[in-house]
Amino acid sequence: MKNSNIFKNIIENKTSSKIIYQNKNVTAFHDINPKAPVHILIVSNKLIKSSNDIDKKNIYILSDMFYIAITLAKKFKINETGYRLTINCNAHGGQEIPHLHMHLLGGKNLGRMLT
Ligand code: 5GP
After folding, report:
1. Other CB atoms closer than 10 Å to residue 51's CB: what's the count?
2. What is the overall mean pLDDT for the chain?
3. Does residue 32 have its Cβ closer than 6 Å to ligand 1?
4. Does the pLDDT value for residue 115 go beyond 70?
């Protein structure tokens, strides 16, 4: 896994990555290596390493992530054609950065879930 400081620096606006949306809980920006025409990451501002670390106290962040993802899907006009929301967890889930984030993917037919 890579270092979680990558996302921390983006959240704190210390990189050239352009923030699309930010509130007190989450930050959204374009993925540096997009897998689809629209590939946005919605990241928890607080360092939560993975979905394994979601608990009763911080679960509100997930509802914010979902809400922002759906709002951005409308903004980027992929809501009608459709999109995929993904959260990867640990090695078998393909998680590269140990900082909780949701992928919003769309803008083309993404095919079946897994090949
Ligand atoms: P994961 O595999 O952890 O679910 O997803 C991590 C994502 O972060 C990958 O899709 C990867 O392309 C993206 N990523 C890695 N480093 C950077 C970076 O420095 N800037 C941005 N915008 N995205 C990054």
Report:
1. 16
2. 95
3. yes
4. no
Residue 7 CB–ligand 1 contact under 6 Å: no
97 lines ligand 1 (CB under 6 A): yes
Structure tokens, 85: 């929301």
Give mean pLDDT, residues 61-81.
98
pTM of the predicted protein model: 0.96
Catalytic site includes residue 101: yes
The rounded Å distance from CA 66 to ligand 1 centre is 18
Identified catalytic residue from 30, 39, 92, 101: 101
Per-residue confidence (pLDDT) for residue 3, from 0 to 100:
75
pLDDT tens, position by position, 28-57: 999 999 999 999 999 999 999 999 999 999
CB 96 less than 6 A from any atom of ligand 1? yes
Residues 6+ apart with CB under 8 A from 26: 42, 43, 44, 45, 61, 64, 65, 68
CB-based burial, 60-93: b 16+ in 10 Å, e otherwise: ebbebbeebbeebbeebebeeeebeeebbeeeee
